[in-house]
Amino acid sequence: MTRINEEALVNRARIFFPIAKKLEPLFYHLNADLARVESKLSLVEHIAVSLYKGVYTAIMFGTLIVLLGIILQDAMIMKIAVVSFLLFFLLNFYTSLYYPRFISYKKAKKIEEDLPYALRHLLIQVKAGVPLYQAMVTVSEGYGEASSEFRKIIEGINAGKSQVEALEDSISRNPSLPLRRALWQLLTAVKTGADLTRSLEAVVDEIMREQLIAIKKYGQELNPWTLMYMMFGIIVPSLGITFLMILSSFVGMVIDKSMLAIGLFILVAFQFMFVQVVKNKRPSVKI
Fold first, then answer.
1. Tell me: the pLDDT tens digits for 144-157?
2. Nearest Cα to 216, choosing from 275, 283, 266?
3. Backbone phi and psi for residue 175, each to the nearest 5 degrees, phi listed first
4. Residue 180 included in any domain
């Protein structure tokens, strides 16, 4: 979202500022997520924008359902519209409210894909006697999001911050726990004058060990997920259609195209969601 779009949304959402200020203590924990995605919005502005999006979406879809009820002259649809208004509001409000956390999580996974290689490169540079600043410059390119974080540290130092201040700023805004641990080790070594080599070796070994454990755990989790897919993606649909055909021959039930279309839609939706769940569970490891 661009700065112009953010300002436009904030202006539209000003009516919700009093409510947002009252809700601020309930969602104080979102300050960290806003900082990690480098949002320019304050927490109150973010809550107000989320309220605006929730109300706007609820009114839009609620109105469509009401119009459908009027056209079909169905009182039940009108009642559904009242309930759907609240559901659409809550769904969109919480989705918008926690969207920075989702973005932060995705950013952390991208960082952790290249992090072990970036830290190993940094370790080699430090072992060769290269100063920490220059070593961080060498890993500020070529390692994706991990390089981007080191580049921000370098930019902070070039802007006049000390190494300690630049590392502390990166730790406070960084969404990746392994990278924060690595930066803490660097920060401690810089403050105390300890051996950077040993600190980096310990961090790299720990991250590699954690990634290996994550891969093994993911492999073990795939077995029950595969069984679930076989059950609900292949066996249940096949037996279900066979059962319906046999049942229809006894009770005279007609299986029309609409029933088959609904079944096909449910099957495709299940397979799509299944793929997304398995994909999201995949550990952040680049092989």
1. 888 988 999 999 99
2. 283
3. -85, -10
4. yes
